[in-house]
Amino acid sequence: MQLALFPLSAHLLPGGIMPLRIFEPRYQRMIAQAGDLGFALCMVDPRQPDALRNMFPVATRVTIIDFDTLPDGLLGVTVQGIERVQIEDLWQAPDGLRSGEVTPLPAWPAHPLPPAQQPLADALRAVFADYPDYAALYQQPPWQDANWVAQRWLEVLPIPVAQKQLLLAASDNRAALTLLQRVLVANH
């Protein structure tokens, strides 16, 4: 499938919600053309010298769930992550908008959060309590969904981007949950 690519310095994963401020004409065009397929949020790879290809290969296809004109006159768009995708090829339009051929990656197998990993959900609840604007994006957080908890942590934890990419490319959430448990236990 072909999708427009929106590079960011942050990850958004399936089930995640993120508000965006759209001001460049190329990204206004991307929003106007998103349709039912949406577009892909891609993590910027600052190590890549080729400006066309300065994105990590695992991205997230997103859909627009809300939009509004912001107080500063810019377009505000809220997107939700749908699925992980692998960028296979990319190209750039004359206005600078990059698009790519992407392949959907299989969803992580769903399962409830094991009791031993419940502290991950509890710590995430504390993050939500500390950041009410972030928490407001999620009306009914699925605290017992292991994928959802792992993916929200991967979005917010400041771990190296290359390491996040390895976790995102995995076929399930086991490595992510193990790492998250180690990091959170070490910090508490």
TrEMBL record:
It comes from the Bacteria. InterPro entries: Lon_prtase_N, Lon_prtase_N_sf, PUA-like_sf. SMART domains: LON. One of its GO terms (molecular function) is peptidase activity. Signal peptide: none annotated. The keyword Acyltransferase does not apply. One of its GO terms (biological process) is proteolysis. Residues 1-188 form the Lon N-terminal domain. The keyword Hydrolase applies. Keywords: Hydrolase, Protease. Pfam families: LON_substr_bdg. This is ATP-dependent protease. It comes from Aeromonas cavernicola.
